[in-house]
Amino acid sequence: MVARRKVAVVGAALSDCGRVDDATPYALHAQAARRALADAGLDRTLIDGFASTGLGTLAPVEVAAYLGLRPTWVDSTSVGGSTWEVMAAHAADAIAAGHARAVLLVYGSTARADVRAGRRTGTLSFGTRGPLQFEVPYGHTLIAKYAMAARRHMIEYGTTIEQLAEVAVQARANAALNPEAMHRTPVTVDEVLAGPMIADPFTKLHCCVRSDGGAAVLLVAEEYVRDCRTSPVWVLGAGECVSHAAMSEWPDFTVSPAAVSGRLAFERAGVRPSEIDVAEIYDAFTYMTLVTLEDLGFCAKGEGGAFVEKGRLRVEGGELPVNTDGGGLSAQHPGMRGLFLLVEAVRQLRGECGQRQVRRGDGTLPRLAVASGTGGWFCSSGTVVLGAG
Description:
It contains twelve helices and eleven strands. It is of the alpha/beta class. It has a nine-stranded mixed beta sheet. Helix 6 packs across helix 9. The longest helix has 16 residues. The protein is globular, with a radius of gyration of 19 Å. The relative contact order is 0.20.
């Protein structure tokens, strides 16, 4: 049997993010990709694997062509926000097995600018075919589905709206330390609760921002690490899980597929949740953070509300810093944000985050991070455990 190679992330970068009115999605893809390559210090000719989705008719063919790449390994997996953690898992497996030497993951979107220019509406529709046809007549918008799940958790476990609001408050506190975040002004629980109602129980600040932006991550086989200008961040383990397509087929609104993807990722990495120094969690809505913390094993089921109450998610003084860049709630959210989780996790492990840099109790840099993405309406999950070089 051929020995499996170790896999490291050696390049991680964002394009211009936030309010970007003068760029196309292709341009944001290219900008993020160039920056990730520059970050790694590697030549583009090394890239023989490419993963992208969400843009063009034949993704990732069109984006690869735009970037001037001719990959011999490709992935266009599309499972919503968890896409990029799932792609990272696939890429790591391909590299470990010798099917690729360097895989570039890239994403870019002008979601905000498109709405502003009238190129699309502000309401995301997944269509009316297949299982969705049975829910659309009842007004089951994307946000309504998340709101229903949050309400079920409140009913089952006594989770309060104030506890959910704490997630938004602490995300904003972290964003205040990030000069690239869209919204940095601190907010209070009362301010979150006083905002306009979007979908009961979510007011505006329970919901993610709409932004433009792109991200890219470069993964390579271990033998190329010595040629890089950055310290490697090793892919220690990953897991993925697909749950349901229709809300009526979801057995329990209080359990997300991260309960499976997280368990697999931690088992394969050989680490426990208690060993994690920093967590990057998909947060299109506050409830996503809370329930994912439970399902990844950072607290017991039903205890997420109490867990987030004590400021545990903050970079400054938090026991488990979560969404250290401010997350989708405050930093940026250009559609599918999973790749941004990986970029921030890598930067934290490399000690590149400036004022928002996480430190362990002894003052050293974090050693272990987890990035967990969620797709659809908790339909899918991908979780990746990363370790510092």
